[in-house]
Amino acid sequence: MQDRVSLAASATAWFAVLIGVLVAATNLRRYVCEQRFLKSLLRRLLKHGRVETRDDLITLKHFLSGSVSYDLSKREDCRPLLRQSAATTLARGEGFCGENARVAIRLLNLGGVRANRLYLQGPRWSHVLVEHDWENGRRLFDSHPDPSTLLLDEDVGRIGAWEIERLPNAHRDLNPWVDSFRIGLPKRPAFWRSLAQLRPPRLVVAVAESPDLARALAAVALLFAGLLAVNVL
Fold it and tell me: How high is the pLDDT of residue 183?
């Protein structure tokens, strides 16, 4: 009986290893393909395939606001935890502010500009946009095509990450932006608030903004757990 249990446990461990290998390989391949696609897109949009001037930022804003639309009737629809990838958003041409921000973050980082999410909090609803490095400071970028919040061309690269009151907000009287944070953490306990203000490292942003890479890393963890179990058994 004990031999059967041991054999079953060993088979389960090897199965976990196999699944880990397959899932990791599949998602890493998707991640690499998406990287290539986004880099080729940058080469088509920008002169050197890199974000070097403020006009380049404006070009990205125009491209994303014109390529990714949103449907308010779908805002209450259930969406997966990792949401859709940047490539999927561009292929479908549809997404809310979070999906739009993901594409912008991927393109900015690939274009040589460090970028990450910034969550704006209002008394009635919230919004997601992008914080990025620019001219020895951090600036705000928003290409979500909502006319009530869309960043004006003249403000691209010029509004500091601490100046959320300068952002366009047609609903300012109803829903002013009262706070901002960089990491989506629960409001309680209170000490989470300080952590949520920290700027995430580049590697964390890379994983958080790529569902394929996140799944690949989870599969690698499963792979190593399986190998560890095999060795123990």
Answer: 86
Residue 205: Cβ within 10 Å count: 19
Full set of structural domains in the chain with CATH = 48-210 (3.10.620)
Distance between CA atoms of 105 and 209, rounded to whole angstroms?
A: 8
Question: What is the Cβ-side half-sphere exposure of residue 143, based on CA atoms within 13 angstroms?
Answer: 28
Q: What is the longest distance spanned by two Cα atoms in the chain?
A: 75
Both tokens of 59, joined, read 């070009």
Question: What is the 8-class DSSP label of residue 160?
Answer: B
Angle (CA) 85-92-65 rounded to 5° is 85
How confident is the prediction for the chain on average, in pLDDT?
Answer: 89
Spatial distance between the Cα atoms of 230 and 136, rounded to a whole number of angstroms? 51
* Identity at 194, one-letter amino acid code: S
